[in-house]
Amino acid sequence: MGFISDNTKSKWGRRKQYDLVGGIVMGVAYIFMWQLFRSIHYNLIFGISLYGPLFFI
Asked: What is the 3-state secondary structure (H, E, C) of the chain?
């Protein structure tokens, strides 16, 4: 993606359009991330919320 953005030539600059599209996609993904399904047990949700961030360390 860096190669693509470095070689992009537009009237808005090299990265603004990618920032805009990425921001919209991330905003929608953030909203859907917190939509819980009724079939999931609350202990599972708690466990994922507690131990999920450990995968990013």
From this structure: CHHHHHCCCCCCCCCHHHHHHHHHHHHHHHHHHCCCCCCCCHHHHHHHHHHHHHHHC
Two structure tokens written together for 8 = 């992009």
Long-range contacts of 45-49 (CB under 8 A, 24+ apart): none
Q: Give the alpha-carbon dihedral of 23, 25, 28, 34, to 10 degrees.
A: -90
Query: Residue 29 has what pLDDT?
Result: 86
* pLDDT-based confidence at residue 36 (cuts at 50, 70, 90): low
CB neighbour list of residue 5: distance below 8 Å, 6 or more residues apart? 14, 15, 18
